Amino acid sequence: MEKHQAEERVQKLRESLEYHSNRYYNMDSPEISDFEYDTMMRELKGLEQEFPELVTAGSPTQKVGGTAKREAGVLVRHNVPMLSLQDVFSKEEVESFVEEMQEQLDNPEFVVEYKIDGLSMALRYEEGTLKTAVTRGDGVNFGEDVTANARVIPDVKAKLREPVEYLEVRGEVYMKNEDFARVNEMQEIRGKKAFANPRNCAAGTLRQLDSKITKERGLSMFVFNIQQIRGMELETHTQGYEYLKRNKVPVIDGYRVCRTKEDVWEAICSIGESRGSLGYDIDGAVVKINSLADREKLGATSKVPRWAVAYKYPPEEKETTVLDIELSVGRTGRITPTAIFEPVRLCGTSVSRATLHNQDFIDELDIRIGDRILVYKSGEIIPKVRKVLKEKRPEGTAPYFLPHICPVCGSKTQREKDTADLRCTSPNCPAQRERRIINFVGRDAMDIKGFGTVYVEELVRLGYLKDVADIYALKDYREELIAQGIIGKEKNTDKLLDAIEKSKGNEAFQLLTGFGIPNVGKAAAKAIMRQFGDMESLIQADAEALQSVNDIGEVSAKCILDFFGKEENRQMVGRLRSYGVNMQAGEQASGGRLEGMAFVITGTLPTLGRKEAAEMIEQQGGKVTGSVSKKTSILLAGENAGSKLAKAQELGVKVIGEEEFLALLQEA
C-alpha cells in the first residue's frame, strides 16, 4: 500500500473507532460487535507499524477508551490507572505472549480467568471501610464517583473482616442473565424501552442518579485485581484473591494457575466451552502474570499493562433446525418473516428466533422449513442466520414464499415499488392498529407512562381501541376496565387513565410524531409544527408549503399529504381535538440569539448532556438536527466526535466546543 493510501485508510479507521468507542464506553449503546471493533483496531495497528510516521498521540491505539462524565456524580482522580488489556485473537498470539514472558522472567506462573462482560469499577477502603467507588472514566486521569450506587450492590462489602490501612481493588460490575430478564420484563410492563443486553443495562444502572433504581435492578460485581494495598504484603495475584475471599469479597470464578503455554491454551479452551452454561456473559479469557514483583518489573505502556493479555473468542455460532417461519405485521402494514428454530444458547442467552427480513433475503439464503442453519449474534445482541447447511438439508423441503394475503386479516398483500417490502393493503388490519397505537403511546411520541404493549394488545382485542383517538375515550369505560381487570385493580386503572389525561397537554409535535407518518420522526415533527403553528394549518398545507420546512423533502411531503388526505385520519384528528388533545405549537423563542440556526451535537461534552444542550438551543430559537449537511450552521462537538466532525470540516461548517457554546448562550 502506498503512503497516501495508508494515510486515507488510517484516518477512516480512526474516525470509525472513535465513533464506536464512544458508543460503547460513554453511551452504553454499541452498534457493532467486539469482534468487528477489534478487527478494525488490528488493521489500524498494522498500518501504524508499517508506517510509524503516521502514529499520533491521539490515535485509538495509543489511549484508553472512554471519557469521564458527570452524570453519576463528581469526577475523582485515579490513584492507579485503570488501563485496557492487550487483545489477542489466536492460539499463536497466546503462545507468543507466554514465550515472551518466559524469556523475560524466571519460571513465571500464569493465571487464566474469565473476562466478564461488564464495566470496571474501583473500590477504595481505608482501615477496612469503603470510602469511595470510582468508574473507569478515561482510565488514566479521572473516573466518576458512584459510591452511593456501589453501596447498594450486594457484592460490594461496606467493611472488611481483616482491615488494612489502605486497599484499592478493581472489579467488573455486571448483570446476571436472570436479573437482566427481570428488569426487561419490568420495562415492558411499564411501557419503557427494553435494554439491548446485560452490559448496557449494567452500565446505565451504575450511572443512575437515584440509587433506589440501582438497588431495584440488581447489579453484581466480581473483583479481578488488587490495585494497591498498604498494611499487608502480598507476593502473588492469587494470594490477593485468597485474602479477598476471606473477607467475603466475590472474585472471578474458576481461575486456573498455569506454567506452560499448553496449560494456558487448555484453560482458555475450557473457559470457551463453559460460556453457554454461565449465569452471566463473558467476552473472553484473561491471561495474567501471577507474581506481583514480576508485574512491577514489566510495567505498562500508556494504554496496556505488559503483564497481561485478553484472548477474544470469535463470534459464537450454533447449528440448529428451522421449525417454522412466522409472519408479523407492523404498524405500516409491512410483513416481516421470522425464522423459528430449536433453541440454542448464544453469548449467554437462549435464542430461538431470528428475522429473515423479506422475500429477497429468503431467496438469497434459500432457507426452508426443516433446514439446518448456522445462527450467530450480530453485535453480540441480535440473533441472525449466518447460512443454510445445504449438505444437511432433509428430503422433501420446499422453497418458502411470503403469502399473497395478510396472515392477520386476510386482505391482499402488495410488494412496495422499488423495495423488497411486502405490505398488507388493509388500513383496518388489527396488527397494524396495535403497532400504530403502541407507537403513539411510546416514549418518543405521546409518552403515556405505564401504557405497555400488553395493555394495548388486550384493549385492541376486546374492541376498546380501534384507533389512537379511542385512547382518550377509555375513561368512559373505567368501571368495565376495573371489573375485567384488563389493566389491573382500581389503583392501576386510575393511574393509567390519569397518565392519558395528562398527555392531552403534550407538545403538538409529540402528537404529530405519534401519528407514525413515514419519514416524519421527532426532529422533523418539531420543525413542522414550529413552522405551521397548529395541526389545522398543517392539514391544509400543500406540497410546496411542506417542502419549505428545513429537512422536509419531496418524499416526506408526499407521506404527510397521503396521511392527511385520508378521510379516516382527518376524522381521527377531529376526535382528538374534541377530547381536548393539544394541537397548538408552544410559544417559540422569537428573536432568540440562535433563531434560524441549525445545530448538530456530537461526541461527549464535558458537563452537558446532549438533551440538555438541545433544550438550551431550542430555548433560544435554534433547532437541532441529527446529521451534518450544508444547511448546518454549527456543529457542537465534544470528545470522540467521530465522523460528524470530519463531515463538518469537509463542508466548512463552524465547529465549537462546550465552552464556546456556553459563551454564545451567555451573549443571548
Written overview of the protein:
- The protein has 668 residues and is an alpha+beta fold.
- 37% of the residues lie in helices and 20% in strands.
- Helix 22 links the parallel strand 19 and strand 20 (623-625).
- Helix 12 packs antiparallel against helix 13.
- The protein is globular, with a radius of gyration of 28 Å.
The poorly predicted ranges are 66-72
Helix/sheet category: alpha+beta
Estimate the strand proportion.
15-25%
Number of helices: 24
Q: Specify the biggest β-sheet.
A: 5 strands, mixed
Mean pLDDT: 86
Helix content: 25-40%
User: How many beta-strand segments?
Assistant: 22
Distance between the termini: 52 Å
Rg? 28 Å
Side-by-side strand order of the widest sheet:
2-11-10-3-9
Characterize the overall form: globular
Key words describing this protein structure:
668 residues, alpha+beta, five-stranded antiparallel β-sheet, 37% helix
Indicate the topology.
Elements: H1 3-26, H2 34-50, E1 75-77, E2 86-88, H3 91-104, E3 110-116, E4 119-126, E5 129-135, E6 142-144, H4 147-150, E7 166-174, H5 177-189, H6 198-206, H7 211-217, E8 220-230, H8 237-246, E9 256-258, H9 261-274, E10 282-289, H10 292-298, E11 308-311, E12 317-329, E13 335-346, E14 349-355, H11 359-365, E15 372-378, E16 382-388, E17 413-415, E18 422-424, H12 430-441, H13 453-461, H14 478-484, H15 490-503, H16 508-514, H17 522-532, H18 535-540, H19 543-547, H20 554-564, H21 567-578, E19 598-602, H22 610-619, E20 623-625, E21 634-637, H23 643-651, E22 654-656, H24 658-667
Parallel strand pairs: 2-11, 19-20, 19-21, 21-22
Antiparallel strand pairs: 1-6, 3-9, 3-10, 4-5, 4-7, 7-8, 10-11, 12-13, 12-15, 13-14, 15-16, 17-18
Helix pairs in contact: 1-2, 3-9, 12-13, 16-17
